[in-house]
Design goal:
two-stranded antiparallel ribbon, ABC transporter involved in vitamin B12 uptake, BtuC, globular, mainly alpha
Amino acid sequence: MSFFLEVLIGGLLAGVMYSMVAIGFVLIYKASGVFNFAQGAMVLFSALTYVSLVERDVSPWLALGITLAAMLALGAGIERVVLRRLANRSPLTLFMATLGLSFIIEGAAQALWGAQVHGLELGIDDLPIEIGGVFISQFDVFAAGTALLVVASLTLLVSRTRLGIALRAVADDPVAALSLGISLPRVWGAVWAIAGVVALIAGLLWGARTGVQFSLSLVVLKALPVLIIGGFTSVTGTIAAGLIVGAGEKLAEVYVGSLVGGGTEGWFPYVLALAFLVVRPTGLFGEASVERV
């Protein structure tokens, strides 16, 4: 039972980290209907920028401030320079634009900082701590707490601020929001900037966990099952879905992997996602689209 609990809790904590990447997708999709495939590249760019500055003897706090400013500018710049000009295009066109942006951002990161692998230290030792006879990673607890804090902050932002009210109005009906005097470009720019901040936090956590390397951008693939299960428009849903995906893949790797030759951790989340697509296509917390004809 102790081993089962260790696997389960480890999976739940890992799932919260998957949710950190998925939140960036949700924010942008909810506000503008754009599936931002470049979110993974933004995660990589933020982590690589921070660790490269630290390795050049820039103090960690100053490096964090510089990286934060860079991610705010990157998010807002992408919206203003690229996607605002494609606002009335088809969803496929917008998706292809973000796909191209992901390669551009990765190339820019390599041109600026090189392609070598970096180790990233956040001052949190990845040591096990014992709670009730169950050993839990200290870093995973820190990462999960950080992710929950981000979700709580975003929830308050959406529900208690003028920007959040404008975001919900734009998400519900962009035309009606525009008729009420809400500036769509302003909301979209703010949301892309916030997505850049979320990418920074996710990049630091994932970079400290796996090292800062170009495969870090592939963490976006882990976010896809989370989005499908939680719903593309729910910040809260990403946490619930992340817990399901994280616990499911760890338990499957331990208890099913030995029966099928291992490797289940890579594909089992997609089995869960396909099951949800069949049973509940909008996800746990997704909103079904209603079209008047």
